[in-house]
Amino acid sequence: MRYAFAAIAILAATPAAASDPVLDEAVEFTAQIFHLDTGVPGLVIAAVRNGESAVFGFGEIEKGSGQAPDGDTLIGVGSLTKSFTGLSLAALVADGTVSLTDPVGPHAGVVDALPEKDGRQIRLIDLATHASGLPRELVDVEGVEKYSDASFAANLSENPLLFAPGSGIAYSNVGFDVLAMALSDIAGEAYPDLLKAKVLDRIGLTATSYDRPQGENFMTGYDWNGNEMDPGDPIENRDGASGLYTTANDIVQYLRWNLDRFGTDDVEMRAISHAAWLMRDGLDPVIGMDESGHMDAMGLGWVIMMPEGDRPLIIQKAGGTDGVFSYTAFAPSRGVGVFIAINQFNFSAGMEMANIVNNLIGTLAPR
Fold first, then answer.
1. Tell me, what's the pLDDT at 5?
2. Is the pLDDT of residue 1 over 50?
3. Would you tell me how many other CB atoms lie within 10 Å of the CB of residue 201?
4. How many angstroms separate the CA atoms of 21 and 24, rounded?
5. Are 43 and 31 in contact (CB under 8 A)?
6. What share of the chain in percent tops pLDDT 90?
């Protein structure tokens, strides 16, 4: 049986968008076919075009529940958190607190000095563009709990960089966690409080936080074998790379904010976040950046894909955590953005959903 629900995101101080039948038709049909083809337990998709929006849910938030996901379903979005961490940095740069090229060392907190290579220090912009040379994950340290302060300290002091900062790109969860630690030190407050004040409250994201969901409308994730995955307790020192929960309705507002090209509010913060700070050409190596589409440049936590065929320029970020894959992409020059999440770890479906969204953006905003 198919479950489908549509909703317009209605936000305080924001009028309800008028219906866009073309948007509704394209989004619902694309998502329905994808859901039927992949057989994932549940799927939620949200889209924005020229300020108008639609949200559709298919399947179930939990197997056997009979409840379809909707605009208020809480979803763990994993590495989409990195785009918010990049925005936290952009906010501090926009208000003059820091410079993108400031060295991270004095603010890392858990270690006296960060590693260097070829005489180059790690800068804030290197962390936010995966260009720091830090590895993807921490290695286990005997007798030390992973992700603890001691775990970070041992990894950052004992393990050499993969390459000189700024000379290459390697996807790094470690780098974004260190970035959150540094921003916390710079701002003089806990990172979740900084994010809330500088980003979430500013944009109007009332359902987005690090709090583990307590209600019934929560998207349960499943592993490769279809077994339920328990998110467990929050992991220490992982706020920069992952950990946020949000809803499709909040992501609609997030997309609207990111697509506000000519608005005067937060214009510098938005421009700093979206700018192509590091072009792919000439970088060596480039590792772990192309799963959701070919990376041509990096914004602050955002992957930038240049126009191709009928598809416009796209800024995007994918996430995966606790049995949930998610993907957010938008075409800033065309006023179109799409978010999708599925609640099973299925690599082929996870990669295909990014392709589906990228093509859908091309359909809704052809060049």
1. 36
2. no
3. 11
4. 5
5. yes
6. 87
φ and ψ at 353, to 5 degrees? -65, -30
The answer to whether 69 touches 43, Cβ cutoff 8 Å, is yes
Cα–Cα dist 251/178, whole Å: 25
Average pLDDT over residues 14-34: 81
Q: What is the distance between the alpha carbons of residues 86 and 183, in angstroms, rounded to a whole number?
A: 10
**CB within 8 A of 292, min separation 6: which ones?**
303, 316, 317, 318, 327, 329, 351, 354, 358
**Torsion (CA) 216, 195, 253, 8 in degrees, nearest 10:** 10
DSSP string, 5-17: EEE---BTTBPPP
Question: Is residue 4's pLDDT more than 70?
Answer: no
Strands of 303-305's sheet in order across = 5-7, 52-59, 42-49, 336-342, 324-331, 314-321, 303-305, 297-298, 278-279
Q: What are phi and psi of 7, to 5 degrees?
A: -150, 145
3-state SS assignment for residue 153: helix
Q: What is the pLDDT of residue 10?
A: 27
